[in-house]
Amino acid sequence: MSRVKLTEYRAKKIILGDSYRGISIRSDGGKLAPLEAKGSLMGWVAKVDQGVKKRMKQGLVAIGVDAAKAKEAFAAWRKKGFSQFLLEPLFPHEASEEQYLSLERVRDGVRILHARDGGIEIESHPEAVTSVVVSSESDIAKAAQATKLPEQFLHDLLKAFNDNFFAFLEINPLIIHGDEATLLDAAVLVDSAGAFFAKSWGEDDLVKAQAQHKAEERVEALAATTPAQLTLKVLNTEGSLFFLFSGGGGSIVIADEAQLQGAGDLIANYGEYSGGPTREETHLYAREVIALLLASSAKKKALVIAGGVANFTDIAKTFAGIIDALSESADKLRKYGVKVFVRRGGPNEKAGLELMREFLTKEKLLGSIYGSDIVITKAVEDAIRHVKMTS
Hints:
The chain is α+β, with helices and mostly antiparallel strands. It has helices spanning about 10-15, 65-80, 140-145, 150-165, 215-225, 250-260, 280-295, 315-335, 350-360, 380-390, and strands spanning about 5, 25-30, 30, 45-50, 60-65, 85-90, 100-105, 110-115, 130-135, 165-175, 180-185, 185-190, 230-235, 240-245, 270-275, 300-310, 340-345, 365-370. Strands 1, 7, 8, 9, 10, 11 and 12 form a seven-stranded antiparallel β-sheet that branches. It is elongated and about 75 Å long. The model has no long low-confidence stretch (mean pLDDT about 90).
């Protein structure tokens, strides 16, 4: 069973029932659902509701806004690829009142973590967190005593947790006034198998991922037609280092090396072609990465073709596909001063490397090229020097 995220709206609706006054707003077909927000004298809190962590730090929360300002915020976030939003009445409070609470299903029951000082900096103070495991209803009083939280609140929360197939619940911040608890922010993971049994939530209540880049969508569609592994994640459209990785383990080592070299913010993409793709499949995949490279406004750019030693991916065949893609854009690549850096090994390694060397040399695109006898990180090290070199 996998864990999947519920929207914050549905999580709070389950926990709080009819007392919850939040409004779920979704973008449908490029338009926002009608927004009718009335009755909050203190204003509203608008949020992206797609399971994004540290929303406040990312500018995905607007506090104390009226309905018009909330719509402006939703429209701006929609342009960033988000489609699910939440509007809640503002609850005035002092930062000193914010507490942290989480519940997680573990082998012995439900583990409760609580800290009197919550808020977005909770991770900086792990020593202040109290841990209690509730194995039966009789343990709830013990948990209330240890955390100094209202016993009835914990009882009701644990009931909702167990009855609705929750696997994890985090409330941060939590505000306690007497016996009253206010959940300012709630994140819930549910067991996916619960979808067959739960009456309180369904597929429509699961978090929808942020919209994909068009290149990611095309690669995903291509991957669906082949047993080979083709993946692409766009990290920075204005990056300088573009990767054509092959093989997951080697890819991680190479990307980590770029991070260690202080070039993490220059990395444009991540992903891989592996599992024996055909020449045409590799051509189509490489075309997407090259298009991203050409669209970047970075002053200096490099393409790194690298990976570990393949078990059965034919180096000559896949390199022929990459060359097909490079040939389509060779003039533009030269114009922008792009260099290509290669490190690869596997079946037909010698023939593939020679084929690539001849092409890159002829097209004046060669940065450096290495086989499996050279350390796996050498090509990316050369590429980093190239893009950091002042003109």
